[in-house]
Amino acid sequence: xxxxxxxxxxxxxxxxxxxxxxxxxxxxxxxxxxxxxxxxxxxxxxxxxxxxxxxxxxxxxxxxxxxxxxxxxxxxxxxxxxxxxxxxxxxxxxxxxxxxxxxxxxxxxxxxxxxxxxxxxxxxxxxxxxxxxxxxxxxxxxxxxxxxxxxxxxxxxxxxxxxxxxxxxxxxxxxxxxxxxxxxxxxxxxxxxxxxxxxxxxxxxxxxxxxxxxxxxxxxxxxxxxxxxxxxxxxxxxxxxxxxxxxxxxxxxxxxxxxxxxxxxxxxxxxxxxxxxxxxxxxxxxxxxxxxxxxxxxxxxxxxxxxxxxxxxxxxxxxxxxxxxxxxxxxxxxxxxxxxxxxxxxxxxxxxxxxxxxxxxxxxxxxxxxxxxxxxxxxxxxxxxxxxxxxxxxxxxxxxxxxxxxxxxxxxxxxxxxxxxxxxxxxxxxxxxxxxxxxxxxxxxxxxxxxxxxxxxxxxxxxxxxxxxxxxxxxxxxxxxxxxxxxxxxxxxxxx
Length: 496
Description:
Blueprint: H1 6-25, H2 41-44, E1 52-65, E2 68-75, E3 78-85, H3 86-89, H4 91-100, E4 106-115, E5 121-132, H5 148-153, H6 155-161, H7 163-185, E6 189-190, E7 196-197, E8 209-212, E9 217-221, H8 226-234, E10 239-247, E11 259-268, H9 272-290, E12 294-297, E13 300-303, E14 309-312, H10 313-321, E15 329-330, E16 333-334, H11 336-346, H12 356-367, E17 376-382, E18 391-392, E19 395-406, E20 409-416, H13 421-437, H14 448-454, E21 461-467, H15 468-476
Parallel strand pairs: 3-5, 6-10, 14-17
Antiparallel strand pairs: 1-2, 1-4, 2-3, 4-5, 7-9, 8-9, 10-11, 11-21, 12-13, 15-16, 17-19, 18-19, 19-20, 20-21
């Protein structure tokens, strides 16, 4: 990681602990409780020369030139050059700085700003304060932390050595704040719903299971926030949303992490068209943050500027497969035999125990989604894979649902929400059949408590789920989810 042999690192650590002891012997605390700054680096950089500032940060560069030293301090806003001169800080302070301090240490500096002959705004140090003495060496200066596994496992070092990494997570935070602004201005109320649930509903996914010792029964980590949010609309809120973690006990790859962040939002008297408009408003806001309308993503140039194309899934299915989508549907379920015949004709592989829903998704992925480079709403899905959405008027085999894709990745999923409790019960019974007869472990559950809540009356509503991590991937041009999650789940290092 630091391109230094283990024995060499041990020597460096021992030497730095000795320096800490030396500093303490000089009556200086190398780990003081606090330090008062007058300026952050970015603020100081806007000040005119001769302004007195007190800054603090990690020393990232140190060039000793006899009786004077140039160094760079970096804080969370940027870096600032300092000039430490023996005559200005005193012989004892300069000697301590030159001999006991090194790159990686945190330092406080008080002095006046001046402009060097190369034109760089610099703090001429008059007083130095040791704020934290580092012991381990930082990643090697010129190559930084380049091994992907090490970057994810020791993200703090990645943040220290890679400016691009820091910018990704700053932009991610700004994007989430922008999404909140859009929703708050639209009259949605931000809420929190339970992470531990007696049932794991609201999505087609395998849950993590835990055990509550006091109540002595199993609980599930939530796989979605959909059902409790809908209950809030039943309770009288006009709009509600949550940005939070959900958990799915499934595969790990460049697109999936077992815990990830979603936005789910629900609005009364709305439908899936209103949710599509919400996506476009969010994108408008996000592209102002990244400062670009076109992003290089996984070899594609993706135009992020709304409005976005809308595709009818039934029409596109017929175009790409040569068959009407209704041939593989039987009312609110799949026509299993016809679906398998179509898959065989198209060369889409499947096994004897492949669930119909999975097979449908495979055809969709290979024949349609694989071509969706540009942002696209794919509208109107089979009822058989969407148990919580309202049917298309006059066609019970299709529902008002869209999935939103960009760069061939799913970014969002939205419905005109089903609010008929009798229909909802029958749909979830069909999901239960898929679980038992087709061994579909990702089918939705029959949540009787949710049905009961619906029976008190649920207004028409639109609902949406947006993958915040997927959105951050797209907006940063990073095709791996691990690049946009600060601490992705990794296999234990002793199992590598």
